[in-house]
Automatic annotation (TrEMBL):
The lineage of its organism: Bacteria, Pseudomonadati, Pseudomonadota, Gammaproteobacteria, Thiohalospirales. Pfam families: GGDEF, PAS, PAS_9. Residues 1-22 are annotated as: Disordered. This is PAS domain S-box-containing protein/diguanylate cyclase (GGDEF) domain-containing protein. It comes from Thiohalospira halophila DSM 15071. One of its GO terms (biological process) is regulation of DNA-templated transcription. SUPFAM superfamilies: Nucleotide cyclase, PYP-like sensor domain (PAS domain). Residues 276-407 form the GGDEF domain.
Amino acid sequence: MAYEGSALRMAPEKTSAPPAPLTADRWARLDGDPGCYAIHMDARGDLLGVSQALCRRLGFAPGDLAGAPVAALLHPDHRRTDRAHRILVGRTGELVELEFSEQRLPGGEVLWVTSAAADNEVEPQQADDDLRRLLDHLTDAILLLDGEGRVRYLNPAAASLLEQDSGEEATGRYWRDLLAVTDHAEQMVADCLAGREGSERTLTLRVGNRYRRAALACSPLPGAHGADGAVIRVTTGRGAGLDEEIVYRARHDAVTGLHNRWEFETRLDERLHDGQSSSLALLDLDRFKAVNDHAGHAAGDALLRRVASALTARLRAGDELARLGGDEFALLLPDCEPEAAAELLQETLAGLLANPFCFDGQQFAIGFSAGIAPVQGDDPRAVLAAADRACYRAKAAGRGRVAVAIGETSPAG
């Protein structure tokens, strides 16, 4: 049985606060910042303000654009790009391409903000200073990466989201150590670090013991000789109503409703540090493939649910049961030595398997092979591997058996 994965314990996510209005003081800071390109519009798309730095870059005087539709600034091709990428048209027809961070405000108003650092005409050191000064004021979480994928800057919003005391604390760490995502975002970042086109996707973000839905966008940072790193933008707070469902799905198996492998490994890791003598049992259904092959996957799912229900009914207080995937179940037995766990498991399985499994007029004899290992050491995966090897020996000895692993909770060489 192959077993891999990692887990983090979750608590329900708090409902996101409503967006804050754009105050006059904040707009004044954005408007007066020479390194800030900002566009403020109402719900209809009419301009309420364009920052002085962006007006100068586009060749307009402050006030020229007040009340005009934002479409007057946008080249028609901007609709073919992603929602963060905009192509602006200057007074003389010059095209200026920029990556904006979009912030939704009360009343349907929208704020686009980016840095003059995105403009190739800005000197490198000034661009870097301007970029960091601007990013400090953004509500989106921003991570700037070097060419190796290590963090060289976190803005305050990112430090807060990732539970870092400060951006300096994260400097030099690999981005994946800070930003844990349950979907595979590595390729997105790798593409940007290689200088390829950026992309954006919605995914599930793990922060400490919490899960939440987020939009992650990644873009390459241009340098003198190609990509000089990447910028990651994380936007949360939209679709907050999905959080409860996301949390449940992240913790539970879809077929049986039991805890899944991520959540189980979290519980196992806790047991490794609680000082009790606990045991881990891995249970593998015998002849499960025959049920699927002869009666279909609906029958297989029904069998899994029956086994889950029967095992749950026989749990002691404090026991933890999970489905790891396929026909594999895991049982964590606190305050129980491996030999006692083996006896308990034999009795439990004997009662469970006394009757054949029936589906759509067909009967199937089912069985279990199980491996038990002591919960000891500091690596949950080593404990799982020891129980896995014991389960393999049980199957090899004729199925329907329980084998105990003693002194095997270190990784196999």
